[in-house]
Amino acid sequence: MVRSLIRSLGCMSKSRVVLVVVGCWCVLVLTKNMDLGEIIFKFERDLHYTNNTVSEASYFRTSTDMTPHGDRKYIHRHILIENVTSYNKYDVTVVTAYFDLGTFKKGFAGKFSTETYLNWGKIFRYLLNPLIVYTDSQKFYNLMKNIRNETVKTTRIHLIKRNSSWAFQLQSNISKVFSQKGYPKHYPNTVLPEYACTQLAKYDVISRASRDDEFKTNYVMWLDVGYFRNRRAINNFSLRRPNGYNESRVAMNVIHANTHMTMPVNNIFRNNLVWVGGGLVFANRDIILRYETQLKKAVDYFLSRRQMNTDQQVVYALFSDEGRRAIRPHIELQLYTPPVDNNWFYLGNIMLQEDLPFISNSTNNRKKQNKF
């Protein structure tokens, strides 16, 4: 009987072999009361799909050549492959934070308020990645709890006190730097000490998330609340590891490609100069912990030199020739450079993957689509 079964399997297509194996695993579930999550994990580990098989699943999602009779078969196959490959589908934990500073002037963009950030934060409704949020605002906490009510298993929202962060513990020292006679006023970077603290605090909270490792992902990333504020699509989306990422580095988005690293640190802070953007920071979990230590060392050093601004100026100064001599950074940056300067959202956009809904070509579905 076993020999006959083996001969039969040899004659089957790959898709039918997959279905047979799934059936066997289902029997195990019923007979051994095994946990479904464990089954999926074991199945993913033991069964190796070819690239062609996964590509077929993608094809089934978007094909317009399906016959009505075949819809059910194709949907079943698509769900099967999706379940098998989804155990660690979103291997990036997204971390964000909002500390309520009220209304403040922001460069030439006018004023930012609590409502500004509440509106921007609504985009997280569509994020499929595991999400960790830190905030001192009850309003923001309530918003995130509401918009993530369908993804509570992959969401953690922490209501914290500002002073629990090492960044806010430096507020009085930063205030003294900004109060120096003649220190340039760049709103809000060198005017509101607490704003500079919020920008530095991203490295605190992303490291907390890395240490806690609640979602067991290999990667962690910081994402500004307003990073995708210009996004108008309402499709779900995920953020994936960027192509070409070096596991030993921290990935960031270049803002000015021809930045001079010979620039004196004093000029970087006082002239509000930017090399890379701080809206998105991506790294391996272990690397970001080491990078946080390195960045804290840089912050302490520049404060001792009576210089400070936001994290963007700290990073530029850290990797400048002068900063390298003083701090000797051991964790380097992986630079993602857009085709033109001042593209602040380039890295996030190339990491973004749309989760397009499956639309079949059946008669019933065509009728439903025509209603909209």
Which short descriptors sum up this protein?
single chain; alpha/beta; Spore Coat Polysaccharide Biosynthesis Protein SpsA, Chain A; 2 domains; seven-stranded mixed β-sheet; globular
The CATH architecture of the largest domain can be named as Alpha-Beta Complex
| C-alpha end-to-end distance | 55 Å
- Overall pLDDT confidence: 81
> How many domains is the backbone divided into?
2
Question: What oligomeric state is this?
Answer: single chain
Q: What is the strand tally?
A: 11
Rg over alpha carbons: 25 Å
- The total of helices stands at 15
| Proportion of strand residues | 5-15%
Largest sheet: 7 strands, mixed
The percent of residues in helical segments reads 40-55%
**Looking at CATH, which topology of the largest domain would you report?**
Spore Coat Polysaccharide Biosynthesis Protein SpsA, Chain A
CATH class of the largest domain: Alpha Beta
Textual characterization of the structure:
With 372 residues, this protein is α/β, with parallel strands linked by helices. It has two domains: 13-87, no CATH class; 92-354, Spore Coat Polysaccharide Biosynthesis Protein SpsA, Chain A, CATH 3.90.550. It has 15 helices and eleven strands. It has helices at 2-11, 14-32, 36-46, 51-62, 71-84, 114-121, 138-147, 171-178, 193-212, 265-270, 285-304, 311-319, 321-327, 346-351, 363-370; strands at 92-98, 104-105, 111-112, 131-135, 155-159, 219-223, 236-239, 250-254, 276-284, 333-336, 352-355. It has a seven-stranded mixed beta sheet, with helices on both faces. Strand 2 (104-105) and strand 3 form a beta hairpin. Helix 4 (51-62) crosses helix 5 (71-84), helix 8 (171-178) runs antiparallel to helix 9 and helix 9 packs antiparallel against helix 11. It is globular, with a radius of gyration of 25 Å. 29% of the residues are buried. The model is unreliable at 27-87 and 365-372 (pLDDT under 50).
